TrEMBL record:
The keyword Iron-sulfur does not apply. This is Aminopeptidase P family protein. Residues 545-604 form the Peptidase M24 C-terminal domain. Pfam families: Creatinase_N, Creatinase_N_2, Peptidase_M24, Peptidase_M24_C. One of its GO terms (cellular component) is cytoplasm.
Amino acid sequence: MLQTFDETTDPSFGPRHVPLIRQAMQAQGLDGFLVPHEDEHQNEYLPAANDRLAWATGFTGSAGAAVIFADKAAVFVDGRYTLQVRDQVDHELFEILDLVEGGVPAYLEHAAKAGQTIGYDPRLHSPDALDRLRAAAAKAGATLKAVEANPLDQAWGAERPAQPKAKVVPQPLEFSGESSESKRQRIGAALTEAGADAAVLTAPASIAWLFNVRGGDVIRSPLPLAQAILNADGTARLFLDPDKVSENLLAWLGNGVRLESPEALAGALAELKDRQVLIDPAQSSAWYFSALEDAGAKVVRAADPCALPRACKNAVEIEGTRQAHIRDGAALTRFLHWAATEAQASLPDEVTVVETLEGFREATGALKDLSFDTIAGAASNGAIVHYRPTERLNKRTEAGSLLLVDSGAQYMDGTTDVTRTVAIGEPTAEMRQRFTLVLKGHLALARVRFPAGTTGSALDILARAALWQAGLDYDHGTGHGVGSYLGVHEGPQRIAKAPNSVALKPGMILSNEPGYYKAGEYGIRIENLQVVTEAEPIPGGERPMHGFETLTLAPIDRRLVDKSLMTAEEIAQLDAYHAKVLDTIGPKLDGEARAWLAEACAPI
């Protein structure tokens, strides 16, 4: 569970491993090969055995891709990882390109040559992604070819880590709020309404949610790697490695669930002949579609039927996450007290910062895991959006600088994710101005009211408006969905510039995390989690409006707030938030920490 600070890759990975991949490609008659970050379950965070992109390139971020040709190669990352990738990847071997602006399809259009055959592993790509890649290759006169044996896996060979086999355990009703049987009946009815007889589920989060189980196959997320077939009558077949079956799991699943080994999956898909089978073309890999079509099933392409119900938390899950945030807020506040007092004099390094915060969370006695490796960026490292401290990069905090700490925890009753930026010593006027602009956007997104049917992309501008007025912006999304003791990044809801067709619904939990990053100097981000609330009428209004309830409770550094840049409404909102923090978290503290919190939450 403890965070480590060792580097598992380095820039030599590419020069050492790409020649081996090219040899395996040549043996299969391939001119190129596509290497996505995602694994067979389309996971964001991966077990070591499935982290193919890292092994091929050295890049360890949570989003990316690579294309390897016989004579050239490229690696693709988004705006969060532009600095990290240059530190981890060999620049002479790999061209470094943007994953979002054109990405792999745009690269194939000009980098592929007429007559070339480019391989891909159908277990790693969704049909939606392959459609775009296939069209791009065709424009260059090249052809995509599915491979039976992944040449990267062949090159990795005996050095590849074993697949994880963490035990799968029940998630009690006191935390889930609804039985698996009820969920299966509910989703089964939705399948019937969609004209489907069954659904194939491959997303670990959906399987964990539907069967009320949790696992440990995926780093920092309590997820089991498994597959399932859900029938419209609510019965299901769950394909799970026998080594993962805990003692009471069979009794927990009940008679409506048939537990089978993964080796039986192909045969089970073949049994779906002539049946209408729903499967998500954005979540499940192309291999499943081919298997179903070869079996004679009638494929219904539609969104994972568990995704939206999973995102809309029930009352038990919402109350659980409130309690998790109170518990976590007390731990985080103890850490912020340490950062505002002892750390101001000792100027600790980033590793010490991470270990200190983790220690406060462990002291709760309820911590199951971190929800992701803590981002602790001192001074210039704070400008690296998804920076992770290592022994090599470890930097000491500096007087007159900022410390950005983005962290989270997994508790059985909820998942947390919070970012605080604190001043070390006396901040500059520019730091205070930029922090306040970020804060204004954060407050605007927290207080907004919006009608049913509004998407996150419609709200994103609220978090950026103050920055835009100053000619500033940030290159990441503003809000991601968060699970209930599941993944810290959960769809389908999000708040970002990119269009999103999913309306925000009551019970959805999202982050609110605008930021600003000055390369080489400092970074700023303020992040709370908030839950979409039921629509309520506004006096004099004509339509009921949804809103947000802020879940995260921890003080925001008032030393970084320039009150002159804030409106009276914003000042009142910040003061009200701090009053709630003091009222809720204060009784959980004592001594110096309690006294410090009272001062930190005083009206500005």
